[in-house]
Amino acid sequence: MGWLKDHKAKKEAERKKEERKAEIREMTGSVVQQNQTGKAGRKEGERRQLDAQRANEIKKAIDKRLREFQNECRLRDCEPEAEEIIYEQLIPQVSSVRLEGDLDDAETVAKFVLDSIDMVLLAIRQGDTYAAVIGVNFIQEWLAKLATPGFSQHFADPNYVRACRDKLELQIRIENNERLIEANRAAAAKIKKDFEAGRVTGTRAQNEIDKIKAKNALLRQQNDPMQKQLAMKEQVISKTEMVQIMTSAGSARLGDDMGTVIDQVADVTDDLNQASKLMDKLTQNDTASSRSSITSFNDNSNSISSDEPATLDLSGL
C-alpha cells in the first residue's frame, strides 16, 4: 500500500502547485497568449519550439514596455538619468533574462516587471517625476536577478510576488513623502525670509509655519508604518529566496519564520491603513494651499502690534 500513499501525496502536491499557479494568474494576469494547439503527448522538440516562441514573446513584451517607459520619461521631463538607464542598461538587459524551466513562473516574472513599470508611470503621470529614478533602479535590480539561472522559481510563491510588488509601491510613496517634507521646509524658509525682510508680520508668518509643521507631522506619521511595512516586505523576499535554497537540505525552520513575518506584515498593514486615513486631509489641499500661503505674503502686511514675535519658531519642521 506504500505506492498508493506515495501516489496520493504526489497528487496532493500537484494540486497545491496548480492552486498556487491559479492564484498568481488571477493576481497578475497574462503577458502573452499561451499556445493551446499542442497536444499533451506532443514530441519534445515541438514542446521546446513552442516554449521558445512563448519566451521570445515575453521578452518582446518587456522590451516594448521599457521603450514606452523611456518615451514617457522624455515627455514628462523626468530626471535625465532615468531615461539613460532605460536605454543604456534596462533594454539591453532584457536579452539576458533567463526564462528556462516553468514558463508559467517566467510569465509571472514578466508580468511583475510590466506591472512595476505601470506603477511607476502612474506616479509620474500624477506629478511625481522622481518616481522614474526609483522605478528604473528597482527594475534594473530585478532584471539582474532574473539573469540568474533558476531565479524565476521564486515567483511560484504568491506571497513573494505580492511582497515584490508592494516593495516598489512603498518605496515610491515613502520617497514622495520625503520630498514633500523637504519642499515644505523650503516653503518655511521662504516665509522666514519674508518675515526678516518685513514683508509679513511675525504672527502671520508663525501661523503659516505652524500649518507646515502640521503637514510634515502627518507625512512622517504616514511614513513610519510604511517604513516598517517595507522592512517586513523585504524580509518576506529574502526569506523566500533562502527557503528555496534551504528546502532541499530539509530545513523547516525558515518556513516557520516566513509565517511569522507574514503575520507581522498584516499587523503593520493595519497601522498603515490608519495613517492613510489621517493623510486624506493632507492630500486634499496640500500643494495648492502651500503655494497660496507663500505667494500671499507679498500682500500688504504692515499692521504690526506690540505682541508681534521677534523671532520665528521653526522647530519640528
Explain how this protein is built:
It is built from 9 helices and no strands. The protein has helices at residues 2-28, 44-75, 80-94, 103-125, 131-146, 158-196, 202-246, 253-284, 286-295. 26% of the residues are buried.
* Helical stretch tally: 9
Helix/strand order: HHHHHHHHH
Judging from the principal axes of the Cα atoms, what is the shape?
Answer: elongated
Structure classification: mainly alpha
The major beta sheet can be summarized as: none
Rounded to the nearest angstrom, the radius of gyration is 26 Å
The fraction of residues assigned to DSSP E strands is under 5%
The N- to C-terminal Cα distance equals 73 Å
Could you give the count of β-strands?
0
* Overall residue-averaged pLDDT value: 75
Task: Pick out the low-confidence regions.
Answer: 36-41, 251-255, 278-285, 287-305
Helix fraction by DSSP (H/I, runs of at least 4) = over 70%
